[in-house]
Model the fold of this input.
Amino acid sequence: MNIYESCPEFEGENFLIRLFRKEDCDDLLKVYSDKNALPFFNSDNCDGDNFYYATKQRMEEAMNFWEYSYKNGWFARLSIVEKSSQCAVGTVELCKRVSDDAFNNMGILRVDVRSDFEKQDVLYEIFSLVVPKTDEVLGCDSVITKAPLYAVERIPAVQKAGFSKSEHLLVAKNGYAYDGYWEKK
Done:
């Protein structure tokens, strides 16, 4: 399966994770304008974008870039839809890393959620839905995700999902090295 030819959906008890849609804009604006969620967004190696979008126009611009990136096979951005409210409460980004560092040819999994969803049980459900399929949809046998030291709800969720703290740094295009990565083989 190629995620860029046919994007899968991941469904669990509480969430449906599917390719983002333009009509998710208002819901995702609540995510990306949430200053309490911002510290948990992984914007490493994203050319200075910190994923804080305070206006609908800025959110639309980001979504246009996500669509362009998906069409060009750079990354896939999926909305995390809470089934009970039918609202998008975050996103998942999936891509395969091509680099000269220890994470070459590994999948990257970014999970951004509103601050009221930055909870261990919620995050674990999201990781447990997506992680088992990363090898199939990205063609890689390992996946990394970021959980910084202060992510006290996220760290136990990634551990429960089978990730181990990596001893390696992620080296960006500009040579800057980022820490806080966890990997699952």
